[in-house]
Amino acid sequence: xxxxADSVLNDLHEAxxxxxxxxxxxxxxxxxxxxRIKPGQTGRCLGRLNLGGKLYxxxxxxxxxxxxxxxxxxxxxxxxxxxxxxxxxxYGCNLNCEFxxxxxxxxxxxxxxxxxxxxxxxxxxxxxxxGNIGLAFTYNEPLITFEYVLDTCKLAKAAGLxxxxxxxxxxxxxxxxxxxxxxxxxxxxxxxxxxxxxxKICRGELEAVKRTIKLSVPVCxxxxxxxxxxxxxxxxxxxxxxxxxxxxxxRLIPYHLTRHHPAYRMLQPGPIxxxxxxxxxxxxxxxxxxxxLGNI
Length: 296
Known about the structure:
- By secondary structure, the protein is α/β, with parallel strands linked by helices.
- It contains nine helices and 16 strands.
- The strands form four sheets. Strands 8-9-11-12-13-14-15-16 form an eight-stranded mixed sheet, covered by helices on one side. It has a three-stranded antiparallel sheet with strand order 1-6-5. A three-stranded antiparallel sheet has the order 2-3-4, with no helix packed on it.
- A hairpin with a 7-residue loop joins strand 3 (26-28) and strand 4 (36-37).
- The longest helix has 14 residues, at 236-249.
């Protein structure tokens, strides 16, 4: 007869990309944090759990949000414009941005409902009658549930559905390369173009995000978003540097400059002025052919 612990383990999916250490310690190698996780604990993303010296994808299939959204809400401006896409989120994130706009699901455990990959794909197919083109993994950080996203995207592609990720791009190259053949489009956050901002404000690494962008652009449709926060990441020189770097990959990449709203730990400053956004967009357009404004 199965014990309660055995039953719990049977309901979980073992994670990929980790190594074992003595005393049942594991080291997750999915993202650049390389969390060393003790038994019974999760990594900083909340989605990867050490049980008995094995790492499990604890958030596998555990969805907190399911909605049919306009594709432009992802935001994707040049990918099936005017269509809708079934959008899902779970919980957790491997960044801890002080201004997080979705902190209520990204930075804590929330109520969820389990959807097997096959069940989610069937739901997406059923929503075709409502204009659905596929599946978008969004709301929280999808890449922390790598195994679920990979399993579901494989099935979705086989069913002729479009697959979309809305991501912070904080993932190591090997898992990203494994996933990319099953992804049609991505919106990747470029939260700033200074390493200090990533380290201090987001607890992440700019170079890792840049690497993900470089890996992804040749394989799938990519759009990039910077959430503008007055006084923190909106200097003329920083936006110009970001635009020049994006253009060095492909000047046709759509670049979204979006307006932040005070949230989570950052209740000040207030939203950036619209004329300031227009000014920054004009700077970016010196280097990129497709720059738009959002959240205005």
